[in-house]
Amino acid sequence: MAQRNVILSADSTCDLGDELKARYDVHYYPFHIILEDRDYQDNVDIHVQEIYQAYYDRKVLPRTAAINVGEYADYFRPFVEAGYDVVHFCLGGALSSAQKNCQLAAQEPDLAGHVFPIDSFSLSTGIALQVIEAGDRIRQGLPAAQIAQEVSALRQHCHASFILDTLTFMKAGGRCSAVVAFGANLLNLKPCIEVDNTSGAMHVGKKYRGSLEKVLPQYVRDQLALYPKVKGDHLFITYSTIDPALIQLVRKTVQKAMSFKEIHITAASCTIASHCGPNTLGILFETED
């Protein structure tokens, strides 16, 4: 039997950016954003600026909802019927039920053996790093099952973290208490949120104090110094909304610390931005081991 061509796909939460999405021919399926009782599709009919403006204007906070089993199955079916296998990357299973729903959809009788869902154990461009690894393997002509197996083995080499400017949105999503949020805001703390790449769960790392101009360069230096063998291929600077001058400050700090073949600057999807709030920024990269 001839090997089937491979479709590369991901939840909208992978935040790959338009250029890389086109370079690797990545298909997205959007998460749901619930704002003022209306259901939107992430970055399709609602965008981050609208979410934050609703908060600034009316103190309205968004909710997010996972992609369900039927949506995934209906999305994959045309690819499979056209003769493709699909490698699909999901938002970490510890963060969302979408990954479990994707697994169930992939077990539908007409999809089984042709759809390969991968729990990224990550979020945002922590997923994008894995998508790029899969895209490189598709170009090498590897079959979908092998790609899924090889990339799954790389998850623990992908490191995702970000600095929060405010805990208001995390509190609204039930991911931290009102007391913690109030204390952090009162003390001008900027916590580093780190993703556990063995499960996808989030935890608070180092707490920084001061302005973002002071905190972000130190955060970058700290993260890159944590690992002795940082892979020099791709680094992502991913943000919700933030002063462009701070993005350039982070880029320069990265370039001083070490050399990367490509530094990608991408905006977070609505799903990610809904939980982290404005002025969030992270660097995401791989290690060799």
From TrEMBL:
Cross-referenced InterPro entries: DegV, DegV_C, DegV_domain_contain
Record key words, sorted: Lipid-binding
Highest taxon of the lineage: Bacteria
GO MF: lipid binding
PANTHER family: DEGV DOMAIN-CONTAINING PROTEIN DR_1986-RELATED, FATTY ACID-BINDING PROTEIN TM_1468
Stated name of the protein: DegV family protein
Organism this protein belongs to: Candidatus Acutalibacter pullistercoris
